[in-house]
Amino acid sequence: MPKYLISASYSAEGLKGLQKDKASGRRQAVTAAVEGLGGKVECFYNALGADDVYVIVDLPDNSTAAAIGVTVSATGLVRTRTTALLTVEETDRALAKSITYRPPGG
Asked: For the chain, what is the domain count?
């Protein structure tokens, strides 16, 4: 199953909700949403810095990953960014492909 990194930042109202739910409550809510779509949460971290949360998940496909991002961000309480993750083997397969490409202006 493809793996994704979801980075999230709370709005001011989202942080108020976090204070109410606690971090463990948010982890439970995210886990339930991911599992409801046939996925699995590998890890869930809160962070200091530009992002408030980092979650690595296994999801069935890109459209499922997009559904989570759109649904969560549409609340206006959290802004998410989703990054598809590649294994070393997947990266090696990509590097082995031959591509004909003309750069801009080339």
From this structure: 1
Separation CA 69–CA 75 (nearest Å): 10
Give whole-number Cα distances, 91 to 2, 8, 79, 85, 98, in Å: 13, 25, 28, 10, 13
CATH number where 18 lies: 3.30.70.260
pTM summary value: 0.90
How many angstroms separate the CA atoms of 49 and 31, rounded? 23
Q: Which residues contact 85 (CB under 8 A, 6 or more apart)?
A: 2, 3, 4, 5, 56
Is 15 a member of any domain? yes
Instruction: State which H helix or E strand residue 7 sits in.
Output: strand 3-10
pLDDT tens, residue by residue, 43-92: 999 999 999 999 999 999 999 999 999 999 999 999 999 999 999 999 99
